[in-house]
Fold this protein.
Amino acid sequence: MLVRGLRGLQHLGLNLGSLVTGLYFALMAVALKVGPGTQARWSLAGAALLAGMAWLGSLRRTRAIAELATSRIASAAQGYVELMGRASSDKNQLIYTPLGGMACIWYRYKLYSRDDTRHDWRQIDSGTSRTTFDISDPTGVCTIDPDHAEVVGAEVRTSYPGGDKLVEECLFGGSTIYVLGDFSTLGGSSSVLNVREDVSALLSHWKQDRDDLHQRFDLDRNGTLDLQEWERARQLATRTVERQHHEIRQQPGVHVLRAPEDGRLFLISAMSPVALRKHFLRWSIFHLAMGTAAVAGWLYLA
């Protein structure tokens, strides 16, 4: 449930790092405002708990990126993998941000309106794209389903249309994209086929045209199919199905990467694996420092 909740926040366009940082300062501000007492200790305890969870989350991301080697698309194992490839720049695959009209492969935007009463910006609209996009390496092409992905390192552009503030995060076609998620191949050699079921279906189809069935298999022309004639029909159906299965498996499969169902990290980024590890390591140090400060304050007040 926690993983699904975090994915939902990410899909709504909330930057979890900024959200957690804001909560830190809110809880610290409460502790400073109310002064020594039970309420201040509870605020600091909440900040320490939040810092511990965020620290573990950052370490989990750092470890996940470090433990997996980058796979080639054509030879990637079915399951949890790390890929890097160039995003398609085909105009037919590009999408456009709803308000800014920028061509990209993925976007997330927030629109703010000026609140003159509070002298601040108030968010009035937001959105995240769900359209799939392709990345490729020298061995093949993989389709990425970005739904519920944690996207890091997207390019941020800010504009002020009509006095409002528009913040757009985009991944662009032609850029190198890093992905970490659940990889599967649909069709091709990975096709799940059942000879017995398909032979039965083909024979049922032949039975629908009795005249053609008897023309092909009623060798003695007596108007019925005996056991030997029906066996001949079954053998032909089996050879037909096996040939069709062979042709299906010779076709190239479609590679797809999406969010793992078991809740493991699903990450998309325009950053390299090395840069991503450093990014999450810096966040883990920050969360550890905030947690230490909160615990120290709690001990002081206690």
Q: What stands out?
A: The first strand starts at residue 70 and ends at 71.
